[in-house]
Design goal:
single chain, alpha/beta, 2 domains, 13 helices, binds S-adenosylmethionine
Length: about 300
């Protein structure tokens, strides 16, 4: 791959993608190498490169995109509305936008301005496709960025609502991410973080780290194993309830049971926190707890904090 000294980050990112360098650590390593070459990289700081072992979230979101339809969008929109209500006239920042489905939900709920960013270039591409397919005319800006990059967060301005669902525990430095995500939050901060289950969380951290070290066929086996414990085993013991849960899974934020299984198997870096630790962390930083949905077990707990 030839990279000239004055190429922009996006150009380089696209060159990387074209050269199939987007996989796990490869992208990170190559970006570091590009920095070392003295090229003009400004928005993708070294902070984002802390974890070489990294799940390809964007690839999973690309696959998820093929199952996105109006029903899924309606469920995603309803789930966002259920917590945040009307977004008319509000500015909305989606930190770690993934597929972009909830940014689109914010557009549909009337947000006057939506800004989405993600560290993963393929996730950014998915969100752009989401806009292209469903909301071409909207006031919706999408770009690459990292929540661990303080300079970047100070530069994008402030927003009425900052939304970061299932992201900060996947950055490789969760407590720093929790600190920095407050910078653009003018009023509401909606975050979702994996529940701390002690040794069980340690097991999951090991599982996910191992997954990302494995070859593709082994990864498939590890995904199948998570699928077995999450869906097949319960189907034997609680057939009706499990079948209903599968059919109604779309109601959980418009997500898909299969692509969530892939995310559970491989989503690394991975950290967890107790609800108490999060509440006290934000209280010390001038945010009061406004809403929470504590799902417990190995699931994500949702919190909305309001700046006092
Ligand atoms: C489990 S997905 C959640 C996506 C989306 N928020 C949702 O609710 O569907 C986690 C996302 O966080 C992104 N991410 C990980 N580290 C990040 C960072 N440092 N800055 C921004 N996004 C990051 C990943 O690329 C991925 O798209």
């Amino acid at each position: 791959m030839n990279i000239s000294a004055d190429q922009s980050v996006q150009d380089i990112a696209h060159s990387c993608r074209e050269n199939r360098l987007l996989q796990n650590g490869y992208r990170v390593v190559n970006v570091i190498e590009i920095r070392a070459m003295g090229t003009k990289i400004t928005s993708m700081g070294t902070q984002t490169a802390a974890h070489e072992l990294r799940f390809r979230f964007g690839e999973n979101w690309t696959n998820f995109l093929s199952v996105v339809d109006e029903r899924r969008l309606a469920e995603a929109t309803a789930s966002l509305a259920a917590v945040l209500g009307d977004l008319k006239g509000k500015s909305f920042l989606d930190v770690g936008c993934g597929s972009g489905i909830h940014s689109l939900a914010a557009v549909r709920l009337g947000a006057s301005r939506v800004f989405s960013f993600d560290f993963d270039l393929q996730s950014v591409e998915c969100t752009k496709q989401m806009k292209q397919r469903f909301a071409q005319e909207s006031n919706w800006h999408i770009e690459t960025g990292s929540v661990l990059d303080e300079g970047y967060l100070r530069q994008i301005g402030s927003f009425d609502v900052v939304y970061s669902w299932g992201v900060l525990h996947h950055t490789g430095n969760m407590w720093k991410a929790l600190e920095l995500v407050t910078i653009p939050a003018q009023d509401k901060l909606f975050i979702s973080i994996y529940n701390d289950q002690g040794w069980k969380s340690s097991f999951w951290q090991w599982y996910k780290r191992t997954y990302n070290r494995m070859t593709r066929p082994i990864q498939r086996l590890m995904e199948a194993s998570v699928f077995f414990w999450t869906w097949v085993k319960p189907l034997f013991f609680h057939y009706r309830a499990t079948r209903k849960r599968w059919k109604e899974y779309v109601k959980s934020r418009g997500m898909s049971p299969w692509y969530d299984v892939v995310d559970w198997a491989g989503g690394y870096p991975f950290e967890v926190a107790t609800p108490e630790a999060l509440e006290s962390f934000f209280q010390k930083r001038g945010f009061n707890l406004h809403y929470s949905d504590i799902r417990g077990y190995g699931l994500c707990n949702d919190f909305v904090f309001v700046r006092t």
